[in-house]
Amino acid sequence: MSIIKLLPDSVANQIAAGEVVQRPSSVVKELLENSVDSGAKTIRLVIKDAGKTLIHVIDDGIGMNKTDLKKCFFRHTTSKIRKSKDLYSLKTMGFRGEALSSIASVSHMSIISNKDNNNSLGYEIKLEGGQEKLFNEVVSTKGTSISVKNLFFNIPARRNFLKSDNVELKHIIDEFHRISLINHDINFIFINNNNELFNLSKSIFKERIIRVFGNSSKQKLIPINEETEIAKIKGFVFKPEYSRKTRSAQFFFVNKRFIKNSHLNHAVKTAYEGLIQDNLYPSYFLKINVPLNSIDVNIHPNKTEIKFDNDQSIYAILKSSIKHSLGQFNIAPTIDFDNNINLNTPYSYRNKEASIPKVDYNEAFNPFNNLTKPVDLKTKDFEISNVDDLVRTDQFKNELEILKTNIFPSFQLNSKYIITKTSTGILIINQKRAHQRILYENFLKELSNKINPIQTLLFPIKLDFNVEEIRMLKLLEAPLVHLGFKFNAFGPDNIEISGTHPFLNQNNVNGLFQDFLRNKDYNRDNTVHTLNDLIAKLLSKYSSISSNENINVKLQESLVNDLFACKDPNVSPFGKLIFKLISLEEIIKIF
Ligand code: ADP
Ligand code: MG
User: Fold this and answer.
1) Is the pLDDT of residue 408 over 90?
2) pLDDT tens column, 177-225
3) What average pLDDT score do residues 262-266 get?
4) Parallel, antiparallel or unpaired: strands 417-422 and 494-500
5) CA-CA distance, 416 to 546, in Å (whole number)?
6) Which whole number is the average pLDDT over 515-534?
7) 267-292 as b/e, with b when 16 or more CB fall inside 10 Å?
8) Cβ neighbours of residue 589 under 8 Å, at least 6 residues apart?
9) What pLDDT, on a 0 to 100 scale, did the predictor assign at position 394?
10) pTM across the whole model
11) CB atoms within 10 A of CB 457
12) Mutate which of 30, 34, 77, 91 to test ligand 1's pocket (most atoms within 8 Å of Cβ)?
């Protein structure tokens, strides 16, 4: 006698439910995803007692006709996939056709659906433990309304296993965040025990984040934007100082689907390295779009895990784009700049006899002569290119205030600061940092120019390195050549330089190259972004005026002008404050 039997459907469904439905939040996730897939414009989520008593999702999407309603709660019924090939080009959230059958098998479920816009009659089906109990014609608007009551009524062990309402509600809110954030073009309403927790109207991504995480998040956001062939990354990260003790604000959305990925999370973490304490987590909201056929979403029943074909590349792109944005918004001293090169003799020089420097230093060299023409503050158009971008707009407000007013005659304090007044107070500018910012933006611009000026050296400079050092510096050769550097020799154990960028003080050539070696990061992450950013930063460091240099009034003025023509005049390329405006009110308060 054969002892192998096919499991009855009800048992099979309960087993499947164990995978799909772990707690009320799993039901919320599946129902919300179905509503998103239905093309709804508005989705309402109503729950009672953290979903233990009731989970009700109402949408105005495509709806189901009579036949579909009769079928939708059977196992492996789905309208979203027809052939196995479809699995590789999935655009929808669902595709396994397991959710409704699993949920139905462990609850009292009622589905009302109407597919016809012009007809106020739809159908209702009621199920208990997956068994059809009632099928009716009912009055309803277009869309679908699914209510799930008494979850796990037939599996007491599971019901007892549920945590307190607070904990279960927290899980539901997490799911709600994940779905409502990425589907910001849909209105969402979320009501718990008659309390409206969220009422989110259709908006852009940034606004949705602010609505979900509160108004205060507005000033915390830094935009991320990167487009490569492999992936498009768009979204926001929080400034490092707003990092959290929990991972509750970490979101990757791959092709509009929330995913968890420890590898990518690691990429973000390393981008923040040195900027946040080890026990804190960076917050991020990142949309990653990759070609549909380059991922496998089918590796986990909950579909929050995902495999990329180009894992390593996406890691590198993600890390460098975040680093770049943190740098651009100048919160990130990625490099240790306090390391004074004059005190650290590079080891390759340690055993050498002191010799007279062969470098010709042009004392008349004026670092400002070649700067971009001073801007006419009254006529310069300070329009912000991306009005949509609230963060930048905010940042620019201060500067605009200042710039709208005239810049008055200035003077130098302690050969270090430039002091001037504006119509609203006194402006104190750190001259060295200001100059670094001007140069940094200038170098970045030149890195994308076609041709750049070259300064030929009277005597070539020869620097000794070991093979490994040469290998690293080689990565920088092309962009440096682009910036006017001329190399007579590059390796195997020395470099001979016969031309540099005109702004670079030639006494600093060695310091610059030693600093390149100290910042080994680009060895691992040698994307164009990272290389250009590093070169522009270090060149600005070694080309700028010092914080102990007398500059005449004319130069002071052009420094101030050029600073406020910069994209980000607030902080130096190394994240240090450039100027401080002491307002009239503050001065009045003193007296
Ligand atoms: P899947 O989402 O994987 O297809 P489900 O069990 O979640 O499987 O749903 C089964 C089918 O029921 C869906 O493919 C869809 O055709 C239909 N369906 C479920 N929810 C809705 C809804 N809110 N609006 C319209 N159709 C729905
Ligand atoms: Mg589904």
Assistant:
1) no
2) 999 999 999 999 999 999 999 999 999 999 999 999 988 888 889 999 9
3) 92
4) unpaired
5) 8
6) 83
7) bbbbbbeebbeeebbbbbbbbbebee
8) none
9) 40
10) 0.59
11) 17
12) 34
Report the distance separating Cα 188 and Cα 57, nearest Å: 11
Better-scored residue on pLDDT, 301 or 268: 268
What is the rounded distance in angstroms from the CA atom of residue 282 to the CA atom of residue 239? 8
Instruction: Tell me: pLDDT of 403 over 60.
Output: no
- Give the pLDDT band (50/70/90) at residue 157: confident
Helices (H), 228-346: 262-271, 311-328
Q: Residue 581, Cβ neighbours under 10 Å: how many?
A: 18
- Taking the centre of ligand 1 as the mean of its atom positions, its distance from the CA of residue 105, in whole angstroms, is 15
Model confidence pLDDT, tens digit, residues 275-301: 888 788 999 999 999 887 777 765 555
Phi, psi at 411, each rounded to 5°: -145, 165
Residue nearest to atom 13 of ligand 1 (CA): 78
Which tokens is 115 given? 């597919």
Q: What is the DSSP string of 92-146?
A: SS--SS-HHHHHHHTSEEEEEEE--TT--EEEEEEEETTEEEEEEEEE--SEEEE
| Amino acid at residue number 523 | N
Give the ligand with the smallest distance to the CA of 79.
Answer: 1
What spacing in Å lies between the alpha carbon of 72 and ligand 1's midpoint?
A: 6
Report the distance separating Cα 243 and Cα 32, nearest Å. Answer: 29
Find the helix packing angle between 553-564 and 390-404, rounded to 10°.
150
Write the DSSP assignment of 416-449 as a string of letters.
Answer: TEEEEEETTEEEEEEHHHHHHHHHHHHHHHHHHS
* Percentage, residues of the chain above pLDDT 70: 80
Handedness of CA 137, 140, 144, 149 (dihedral sign): negative
Q: Name residue 113's beta-bridge partners.
A: 123, 144
Q: Which ligand is nearest to the CA of 100?
A: 1
Helix (H) or strand (E) holding 13: helix 9-20
Closest CA to 541 of 344, 336, 363, 364: 336
Name the DSSP letter for residue 494.
E
pLDDT at position 405, please? 43
**For range 319-334, the mean pLDDT:** 71
Helix, strand or coil, per DSSP, at residue 253? strand
Query: Which residues sit with their C-beta closer than 6 Å to ligand 1?
Result: 30, 34-35, 38, 59, 61-64, 72, 77-80, 94-101, 144
Residue nearest to atom 16 of ligand 1 (CA): 79
